[in-house]
Amino acid sequence: MGSWQRILLLSGVMLRGGGGATALLGGSQALVCRRQLSGAESETLKQRRTQMMSRGLPKQKPIEGVKQVIVVASGKGGVGKSTTAVNLALALAANDSSKTIGLLDVDVYGPSIPKMMNLKGNPELSQSNLMRPLLNYGIACMSMGFLVEETVPVVWRGLMVMSAIEKLLRQVDWGQLDYLVVDMPPGTGDVQLSVSQNIPISGAVIVSTPQDIALMDAHKGAEMFRKVHVPVLGLVQNMSVFQCPKCKHQTHIFGADGARKLAQTLDLDVLGDIPLHINIREASDTGHPIVFSQPESDEAKAYLRIAVEVVRRLPPPPE
Fold first, then answer.
1. Which of 173, 169, 81, 163 has the alpha carbon at shortest distance from 135?
2. Which of 281, 315, 115 is nearest to 200 (CA)?
3. What is the DSSP letter of 11?
4. Which residues contact residue 2 at a Cβ distance below 8 angstroms, ignoring those fewer than 6 apart?
5. Does the pTM of the predicted model rise above 0.85?
6. What does DSSP say about strands 66-73 and 101-105: parallel, antiparallel, or unpaired?
7. How far apart are CA 67 and CA 263, in angstroms?
8. Contacts of 73 by beta carbon, 8 Å cutoff, 6+ apart
9. What is the pLDDT of residue 34?
10. Alpha-carbon distance 171 to 186, whole Å?
């Protein structure tokens, strides 16, 4: 059926076979015809879209030497995702000293890991021409921030960003890792899809503040991972409460228990609550993450408990 025929049909006029005579359809008959056409076309389009997407999807290939990959993501920037990723990696190592941990920063435009982990310099190359991660606090780290000057903006289009992500995923010599924690950029765009479709991910951790605006985007982030068949391990409610250091009065600056309500909606668990505390901010800014620098603090213990919950929900590592 041609486009002009569809226009006539939607206007309530239907062509009859043979001599091209036309007859006006009643309103209900025209509605039925429109629905039948719309349903058939939408089903055809859905099938074509599925075929095209399946053709273009890359085959997942594990990162050599890495047993399990945990991605830390958020729908919105500024909710403490990178701080959570850094302290989660350190907490995984602190909870089990027999495990080897890596930290990969795939936020190409705004890498935070070099500063938070107090690392500078360019990675060396192995004999097989792979980049060697930089090491601090017992964590092997790789970031775009090691490959560009700290104050130089990365002004790249999509194809260049995808090429950089491919290098960070495939051209790093991690050695043998039990867990690789991946600090994702905010949002649900090309980078998130590329990472999710290129490597097998054991689970995703979604970080959000209790604020309604942040939770809307966290909801989208969780749904995105579900659509690409990545298990969502749970939510971290960051900046959940502020306690005055003098009078100890608690204030829910970003709202109370928003992430818990979202978790119920999504049938997920809240892995833990992280308070809004100056110690966390100062430790991150100085490159001495709180799990390492103040392991006995209540804030560090909150990250340690989250790490326990993450490991408990991970599937068994591959043989």
1. 173
2. 315
3. T
4. none
5. no
6. unpaired
7. 28
8. 81, 184, 186, 192, 204, 205, 206, 207, 221, 225
9. 53
10. 23
